[in-house]
Structure formats: structure tokens, C-alpha cells
Amino acid sequence: MENFERRTNDLGDNERLVLFLGTERGLQVMQRIVQDRIGEVAAVCVQYDTGYGAQASEEIARVAKEAGADVYSSNDVKSTQYAELIRRYDANTALCINWRKLFPMDAVNAAHRGLTVAHDSLLPHLRGFAPLNHSLRLGENKTGVTLFYAAKETDSGDIIGAKETAIGSDEYVREVRDRVTGLTVELVSEELPRILAGRSVGSPQDESKATFGVRLTPDDGRIDFSRTRREIFNLIRATSHPYPGAFTGLEGREMRVWTASLPEDTPVLATTIPGRVVKREENRGVFVSAGDGAILLENVEINGDNASADAFIRNHSTTLK
User: What does the pLDDT read at residue 158?
Assistant: First the structure.
């Protein structure tokens, strides 16, 4: 009842928003909010961090300032200060897009209608860390984005809306990520006006269907050639650009594998020695034995040099590990 009243009560002409935004997705959401004149953007806290999407931070700040919003940096505002920041602007709603820090409960409840969050999965599936990467690692055929009201438990709050997209069996994470970014912008532009107007109650998640993704580190991209060739291909797809990449060892050097494939003309192996070179094809790559057959390694990188795998791997007795 408390949540229902909070999300539906009459706030008069108060449509003030406090936004917590990071990466290119946060930028695109900000641009759409300004373009469609959704609410009154009172303040924007910008995620400054390293890694993919960091270059969007300055552009988020620029767009926010042009829109007349006060701008804050994640480097200067601690999580213990989020609630104070939201209350300072008497916000109708706080919105979080690609934010890499947790919100304490006082911040979750600081805005009149609470905190809304966009998450890269079809909740309650794949709560937690790196949902998009996990989707590809698992070989799933669909993913999406869910907009929900934040609650005490991670990614467990009432669902406001969701959008779904298929994952092709040979698609790489950048392609899917770009599509999910577009869906996020669409979802926010459709649902945020309803939230501000008190016309979005949200629907509880089915806890019996909840799954969780663990935190991933760069070392989790290490290729184990004893796995099936599909599992290896999925790992490569899930960790490729803009992420650190799957990797293996080649004669004492680290080799990043950016693209691979399972072509129809893959050699049929009578026996397997995981990681052993099977066949080289000039300017195409190298077939390597996996646990159940061969996989074609295509574009790879060693010491900053990118080339077809056959440019680096020439000996058929080579074993990658």
C-alpha cells in the first residue's frame, strides 16, 4: 500500500528529475529526455570511470548543462550523499542508467516516487552483474532491458516495463549491446512520463524464476579448449569488443581472440587434443581442436598487433593453452 500511494499520489506540477547516468547509454537516454521534454531535469550526477563508455561522461555533462540542470561528478558525490542530493531538488523521481555504484536504501526512497533503474536483462532472470555478457556466454537466444523500481534486494523491485530482443547464434556482444541501448532509450521515453504523472504502479517479480549473474573479471575470459566448441565460441562472442576479450597462451605470449566461427567446412576430427592446431588457412584463420571438434579462430591480437590467426600460428604441433 505504501508503494502504491508513493507511485500514484498527486504531486501537482512537480516533475523534477535527478538523473544518475553513465556510458553511452546514459548519454542517449539524456538526449532523448531533453529532446522529448520529459519532466524537468533538475540535476544530473555523471559517472566518471574507466573502461568502455567512459568517453561519454563529458558529453553527458555538456548536454545536462545546456538543459539547465546542475551537474555533479561521481568522483565528488559519495553514495552516502545520494539521498541528500535527491532531496535537495525535491525530486519527483530519480533515474539510474548504467550507474556502477550501489544506492543505499535512504537514497532508494529519497525521491517522491522512488528510484527507477534500467537493467540489461529480462528480469527476474540474470539479476546482478554483467547480465548481457552472461546471456551470450550461456548461449541464450534472447535478452532485453527491464525498467523497475529499486528495492532493498538487488534488481528485485517491481517491474515498470521491459523490451526484448533476439540474440543471433553468431552475434557478438557489441551488436547486442547497441540494440539493447536503443531499447533502453525507447523504454525510458515511453515509461518515464507515466512514472512522473503517477500512472505507473509496477508489477512484482516472480521470485521463483529469479537467477543471478556473478561478477566477471578479465581473467574469466581465459579459453579452456577442453570445453565444447560452442561454449568456446560463446565465450569469445561475450567478451569481444568493447570488452577485454577471450584469451589463450601461444608459446609464452598472451593471444586475444576477437572473432571466431563454427563454419560448415570445419574439419571433422577423429580424435581431439584440446588446444592443438588442426589446420591453417591463409588470411582466414586457424582451426583449433576443442573438446568435441574444431573451432576456427579468426581475428586475434598479440602484443597490440591484430591479424588473422594464421599470421601468428604456423606450426601444426602448437598447442594453445
Answer: 98
